[in-house]
Write a structure and sequence with these properties.
By secondary structure, the chain is mainly alpha-helical. It has a single domain, classed as lambda repressor-like DNA-binding domains (434 Repressor (Amino-terminal Domain), Orthogonal Bundle). Helices cover 74% and strands 0% of the residues. Helix 2 crosses helix 3.
């Protein structure tokens, strides 16, 4: 499985969680609207065809209301974070929440 497919799986999980939270389908069109990107770009990423840049993923994570764990999974799947960086990101998030 390539990085595009792993990223697609991670994004689909976040979209499914968002859909459950709002009580209806959260579509690639809505993700694009909420993040200022195009529906086509969002659709291709969610379906494991492309890897967007960090800035786009950051916008999508914000629109989806991703938790630290979801953001770490998405950025790791896209190849932007190593396992060590994921661990540090989650530790930092936990420390900030406790403070």
């Amino acid at each position: 499985m390539g990085m595009e497919q792993r990223l697609g799986i991670a994004l689909k999980k976040a979209v499914a969680r968002k859909s459950e939270e709002i009580g209806r389908d959260y579509t690639s069109y809505k993700l694009a609207q909420d993040s200022g990107t195009t529906q086509s770009y969002a659709y291709r990423a969610i379906n494991g065809k492309i890897i967007p840049g960090r800035e786009i993923l950051t916008k999508w994570c914000a629109a989806l209301g991703c938790s630290a764990e979801e953001r770490a999974e998405i950025f790791h799947a896209a190849g932007y974070l190593s396992p060590e960086e994921v661990e540090k990101m989650l530790e930092d998030e936990t420390s900030a929440a406790v403070a």
